[in-house]
Write a structure and sequence with these properties.
- With 365 residues, the protein is mainly beta.
- It is built from three helices and 16 strands.
- It has helices spanning 2-18, 68-72, 267-278, and strands at 26-37, 53-61, 77-86, 94-106, 111-122, 141-157, 160-172, 183-195, 218-228, 238-250, 255-266, 293-304, 307-318, 327-336, 341-350, 353-364.
- Strands 1-2-3-4-5-6-7-8 form an eight-stranded antiparallel barrel.
- The radius of gyration is 22 Å and the shape is flat.
């Protein structure tokens, strides 16, 4: 199956590259990696029995600073990556992922930071009868993030170059379905890169003061929704709804800060309260507790063209039932369709414990 997917990926890459009418520049890289699963939670200690290994295949579209956002970030690459990982554990199986990524360059373009976000498929998720030991993955499909920090040398000979470094691959379904203890693989990688056209144009340097450009305070509203499950396995997946308002201040062409408030409705939390009330846990839960929460948050938005990296830290000002703690964090991606309308995909967590994947639609005045 993996060989077939690799062949299909190579064919798709060849079609994309050959089908360009305008002059565009691409490079391919293939990395082999070897690593270990980090024990971020003692509940997954029995799943750390070997050393995961696999391959990372990437197609990168190069930029040269022709557009303002490219010069702001030192002409990054962007593209797609395919990852196959053997987790070297009979209960975890293999993971196959497809990602969108950016490459950012430092130290005269010899140091590359790649950040990718995508979806992965795991071959052997939790099953109460056949695979109850896999508490890391509760479903076949997972949200996945990876990062590589590599030394990269291009065009050493005939368009071929080398890259090597370290990285992390994270897999989680963000409590879309329990259990969801997740895994983080720390890895070492080494590989080759190939410039499809080695006759590259010159990079355009960023002019002084390019990032300047603050704006007045803006206001907006956002609606977030999705489906999640409490940590009680088999308790059921239920929809949730979050309604929020915010004010933001764009400090420059890269960064903005945010202040907002939001109201949370969660059917999974209602179900969890009922479970605790009727399960003789003697924790004081009566079943009459309010499952709604009100949070206030402070956030930062890093703009990369029409895409933003969103990070927020929040506190539940109204918190009638103790569930995972009264401090929460949110991280994800936001995309602007127009100057005013945007969507987002984010993960809301309590420290490292995810509660939900949120799909959002918002409007900024």
């Amino acid at each position: 199956m993996v060989k077939r997917i690799c062949c299909i990926l190579i064919i798709c890459i060849s079609f994309v590259v050959s089908g360009q009418e305008n002059k565009k520049y691409y490079d391919l890289d293939i990395n082999n990696f070897y690593g270990t699963i980090l024990e971020h939670n003692p509940d997954i200690s029995h799943l750390i029995t070997g050393h995961p290994s696999g391959i990372i295949m990437s197609l990168n579209k190069k930029t040269f600073g022709n557009k303002e956002w490219q010069r702001l970030y030192n002409a990054p690459d962007y593209g797609v990556s395919f990852i196959y990982q053997d987790l070297d554990n009979e209960f975890l199986g293999d993971n196959i992922g497809l990602y969108a990524h950016y490459n950012f360059y430092f130290l005269n373009r010899s140091l590359m930071l790649r950040i990718g976000q995508g979806v992965a498929y795991t071959t052997n998720p939790y099953d109460e009868d056949e695979n109850f030991r896999n508490v890391a993955y509760g479903s076949h499909f997972l949200s996945s993030t990876f990062a590589l920090l590599n030394f990269k040398k291009e065009n050493i000979v005939g368009g071929l170059g080398l890259n090597a470094g370290i990285g992390v691959i994270h897999y989680s379904n963000a409590n879309f379905k329990a259990p969801n203890k997740s895994t983080n693989t720390f890895l070492f990688n080494v590989g080759v890169n190939y410039l499809i056209d080695s006759d590259l144009p010159e990079y355009i340097e960023k002019e002084k003061g390019l990032a300047r450009g603050s704006e007045a305070i803006g206001f907006g509203a956002i609606v977030r929704s999705g489906i999640n499950e409490s940590d009680v396995v088999g308790s059921g997946q239920y929809p949730f709804l979050t309604i929020g308002v915010f004010a933001d201040k764009r400090l420059n062409k890269k960064s903005a800060i945010q202040l907002g408030a939001e109201l949370f409705f969660s059917r999974a939390l209602e179900r969890f309260i009922d479970f605790r009330a009727t399960g003789n846990f003697n924790d004081g839960t009566t079943g009459d507790e309010d499952a709604k929460r009100i949070g206030v948050f402070l956030g930062h938005e890093l703009r990369i063209n029409k895409l933003s990296v969103l990070t927020q830290l929040g506190y539940y000002a109204y918190y009638p039932y103790d569930f995972e703690g009264d401090v929460y964090n949110r991280i994800g991606l936001q995309y602007y369709f127009t100057k005013n309308i945007f969507s987002a995909v984010t993960v809301r967590s309590h420290a490292a414990k995810a509660e939900a994947v949120e799909f959002s639609l918002g409007y900024r005045l």
